[in-house]
Amino acid sequence: ALRTDILCNVPTYKGKVRAFHHAFSTNDCSRNVYIKKNGFTLHRNPIAQSTDGARTKIGFSEGRHAWEVWWEGPLGTVAVIGIATKRAPMQCQGYVALLGSDDQSWGWNLVDNNLLHNGEVNGSFPQCNNAPKYQIGERIRVILDMEDKTLAFERGYEFLGVAFRGLPKVCLYPAVSAVYGNTEVTLVYLGKPLDG
């Protein structure tokens, strides 16, 4: 299948190099996934009763940062995007929302539109009636503001709102967790958000 360049929203060569430095870490992911040669795409192997995740190479403790995430295969029963500290696990038994399962991670489950942190559902997201479900290939922009200590999301060019407030002043890494065998998830760092 023909696909567009995964870096199409990164305008400059310098930005593309920076994006590669902020890509998934091959040393900081579940043993049940591998990072494809492009460095931006995680492939989850078909392992039964396992939830598997990955963090990026570089985390953030200051500044404002944006990245895009999209699924290139089925979501399965749980598909979570968000942030995690280095202490958050990247693999666990069963099919669960790994990101958000402890106090070291914050996630948005794209399957049921729930926000997750510390093992609890922190409400639905986006906060509107009949929120549309995520569609395969749809790019979600994640915006981490370490000055305001918030995590927000956009779909296309629509700002969906702030999902989490009061984030700790620690190093936070873009992260994802998946359960579906052979699914692929791509994450591309964009830099500072363009909203000013």
UniProtKB/TrEMBL annotation:
One of its GO terms (cellular component) is SCF ubiquitin ligase complex. Gene3D superfamilies: 2.60.120.920. It holds the Pfam family SPRY. It comes from the Eukaryota. Keywords: Ubl conjugation pathway. Residues 2-194 form the B30.2/SPRY domain. The keyword Zinc does not apply. Pathway: Protein modification; protein ubiquitination. InterPro entries: B30.2/SPRY, B30.2/SPRY_sf, ConA-like_dom_sf, FBXO45-Fsn/SPSB_families, SPRY_dom, SPRY_FBXO45. GO terms for biological process: proteasome-mediated ubiquitin-dependent protein catabolic process; protein ubiquitination; synapse assembly involved in innervation. Belongs to the FBXO45/Fsn family. This is F-box/SPRY domain-containing protein 1. The lineage of its organism: Eukaryota, Metazoa, Chordata, Craniata, Vertebrata.
